[in-house]
Amino acid sequence: xxxxxxxxxxxxxxxxxxETGYECIEPNGGRAYPSYFTVTxxxxxxxxxCD
Length: 51
What we know:
- With 51 residues, the protein is mainly β.
- 0% of the residues lie in helices and 47% in strands.
- The protein is built from no helices and three strands.
- A three-stranded antiparallel beta sheet has the order 2-1-3, with no helix packed on it.
- It is elongated, with a radius of gyration of 11 Å.
- It starts with 8 loop residues before the first strand and ends in a 6-residue tail after the last strand.
């Protein structure tokens, strides 16, 4: 997953082994997920970092 937004962070909701988790991706940042992750939601927030 790659966040192409320049000034907004993205919050991902995912399933991993039946458990729900959340991860923040900073602007112009990315993350590779293994095949046992299933992204179930994406939320764009107007914040420039994940702090």
